[in-house]
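Final report, Chapter 2: Outcomes

The project's central promise was a pipeline that accepts a single protein chain and returns its three-dimensional structure in a standardized token representation, suitable for archiving and comparison. That pipeline is now operational. To close this chapter, we reproduce one record exactly as it appears in the project archive, with the input sequence first and the structure output second.
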Amino acid sequence: MSGTQYIPHVLYSTALTSISIHLLWQRKTAEEDRARFKAQTTILQGLVEQLRSGKSISDEEITKSRNLARIHGEGKQSPDMERTNIGWMDVVWGRRTPADLGVSDEWERRDLEQIRKEIEAEH
């Protein structure tokens, strides 16, 4: 029972470590966001100055500047983020793929069809 006297200290140190790591992560994220927004603002201000000065700017250059200023990955969702609802069964046993659920892949279907035609041609 002598080990039970250290349980509160272990819990406190774990909580303190968790909070400090979380705050550090938040600080780094905020710094990255500020830097990205500052870069976007600088790019767009340069474009505005060129347009206000009356310089001839091609549509291609405007598109390039807008793409540089656009937030990385805006409007695109990664395939990993399509399914956000993850249950405990998925965590323990893994995710079910369409092949696991009985939905065959298009290529597999074509291969099976080709094999069937070859077998029919032999008979």
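Archive annotation: The chain is about 65% helix and 0% strand.
This record, like all others produced under the grant, will remain available to the consortium after the project formally closes.
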